[in-house]
Amino acid sequence: MKPKVVILGSGFAGFGAFYSFVKKINDKVDITVVDSSVFSLSKPILPEVAFGERALNEALIPIGKYIEKYNHKFIRKEVKLIKPDTNQVILEDDSIIAYDYLIISLGAVKDYDAIEGFREYGYSICDYTQALRFLDRRANLIGNNVVIGACLTQWGSASTVKTLAAPCEGPIGEIMFMLDHYLRKHNRRSNTNITVFTPGEIFFEDVGERVHKNMEPIIGKSNINVVTKKILKHIDKEYVEFEDSSRLNCDMAIIIPPYRGPKFLIDSNISDEAGFVPTDKHMRHPTFKNIFAAGDINATSMPKLGHIAVKQSHTAASVIISEIMQKEEIIPFEPEILCIMNRGEEATLILSDWMYGGNRDLTFNGKISKLMKMGFDAFYFYSHGKMPPKWSEDYLNKLLVKCLNK
Ligand SMILES: Cc1cc2nc3c(=O)[nH]c(=O)nc-3n(C[C@H](O)[C@H](O)[C@H](O)COP(=O)(O)OP(=O)(O)OC[C@H]3O[C@@H](n4cnc5c(N)ncnc54)[C@H](O)[C@@H]3O)c2cc1C
C-alpha cells in the first residue's frame, strides 16, 4: 500500500507541496487534495482585477484537472474537522478521509466582521468578491478622501517568531500606488487625498532601513500620507475611527482585515487560540508528528506571503518524502521576503531577509520589475500552480545582489 498523503487547501502552499511530491515520488504516494473551491485563487493578481487591468479568470486556476492529470485525487468539499488521534479528516457532508501524512495549507481567514462598519462601508481586495466590489466602485472616486491600511492581527501563542502588527502590507503598498497611478492617468489625482495607515511602528514593518530609505521618496513623490500606530476600529460613511479615538475623513476605506485561523482547527485541538497551527522548523506539528502545516495557516509564517508559503510547503514535503524514501534530503526553510509591488507603469521588487537576521534588504524599481511580475503571474497561471525553476530564482537573487551592490 502506498502512503496516503492528504493536502488540505490548494493555494500557494497546497500546490507547492503537491508538485514537490509529483516531481520526486509521484508513483510512490497516494495524494488526495481537498479544497472547498474548484479554483485556486492567485491573490497577487487581485489588485489588478480590482483596477480592471486583468480579468478575474486570469487569477483562477482550476484545481481538479491538474491533480487528476498526475493520477491523484481531488475532492471539492469543505473540511470541518480533523481527528488527529485517529488520522482522519471530516468533510462538510460527514464523509471521512484517512491519512498517513496530513499537510494543512488552508490559508488564513480574513476576518472582515471584526471591523465595525466594514460590511456597510468598507472595501478590500483580499478575495475576488471584494476585488469585484472595488472594481465597481473605482469609477466614482473623484473628490474623495481614500484611506488604505491593514488592520491589527492578534496572533496566538504559537506565533513564536517575531510577529508583525499587520499580516501583510505588500498589497496595501500595491493598492496605494496603483490608485495614485490610476487617478493621475485620468487627471483626477488632485481631487483625492490618499492616506495610508498601519498598526505597526512603521509602514512595511517587515523590511529594514535600506528598503525604507528607497521607498520613502517614491511614496513622497506619489503624495501619499502615511500614519503609523493606528489600529482600525470602525468604518463609517464619512470617516474611519481608530482605537485611540482619532478619526480620518474618509469616503472610501480599503483595508486588509485582521487574519485568523478557522475555528474548526481550534476545535480539532491542532491550533493555538487564534486558529494558527504550531510547527517546528520542518513545518511539523509538535504533538501530532504526521501533521504538517505550511503557508498562511502556519503560526510561524510571518509575514503572510506567497513566497513564504511555497518555501514552507517545500520543506514540509521534503520531510515527508525523506521519511517515505528513508533518505535524508530535507530542504531547510530559509525565510526571506520576495514580492513585487505593481505601481502602474512600473513595479518595485523587494528582497529582504532583514527580519530574520540576514543582510539582504533590497529594492529594485522600474519597468523590468513590472515585467518580472507579469512573467511570474503568467508562469504560475499557465503552469497550473507551479513555481518558476529554482535556477531562475537563484539567478535573480545573484543578479539583484550584484546590481544593487554596485
Ligand atoms: C490582495 C493580496 C495580494 C497579495 N500579493 C502577494 C504577492 O504579490 N506576493 C506574495 O508572495 N504574496 C502575496 N499575497 C499573500 C499570498 O496571497 C498568501 O500569502 C498566500 O496566498 C498564502 O497561500 P496559502 O496556500 O497558505 O493559502 P491560500 O492561498 O489562501 O489557499 C488556501 C486554500 O485553502 C482553501 N480552504 C480554506 N478553508 C478551507 C476549508 N475549510 N476546507 C477546504 N478548503 C479550504 C481555500 O479555498 C484556498 O484554496 C497577497 C495577498 C493578498 C490578499
For this entry, give a set of tags.
SQRD, FAD/NAD-binding_dom, alpha/beta, EC 1.6.99.3, oxidoreductase, 5-stranded parallel β-sheet, binds flavin-adenine dinucleotide, 23 strands, single chain, NADH dehydrogenase, 406 residues
Question: Could you explain how this protein is built, in words?
Answer:
The protein has 406 residues and is an alpha/beta fold. The protein has a domain at 4-109 and 260-325: FAD/NAD(P)-binding domain, CATH 3.50.50. The protein contains 11 helices and 23 strands. It has helices at residues 12-25, 46-50, 64-69, 118-121, 128-138, 170-185, 209-221, 263-267, 306-325, 367-382, 390-405; strands spanning 4-8, 30-35, 39-41, 60-62, 73-76, 79-83, 88-91, 96-98, 101-104, 109-110, 122-123, 145-150, 193-197, 224-227, 232-235, 239-242, 247-249, 252-256, 259-260, 291-293, 337-342, 347-352, 361-366. The strands form 7 sheets. It has a 5-stranded parallel β-sheet with strand order 5-2-1-9-20. The protein has a 5-stranded parallel β-sheet with strand order 11-18-12-13-14. Helix 7 (209-221) links the parallel strand 13 and strand 14 (224-227). The longest helix has 20 residues, at 306-325. The chain is globular. It starts with a strand and ends with a helix. The mean pLDDT is 95. Bound molecules: flavin-adenine dinucleotide. Flavin-adenine dinucleotide binds next to helix 1, strand 2, helix 2, helix 6 and helix 9.
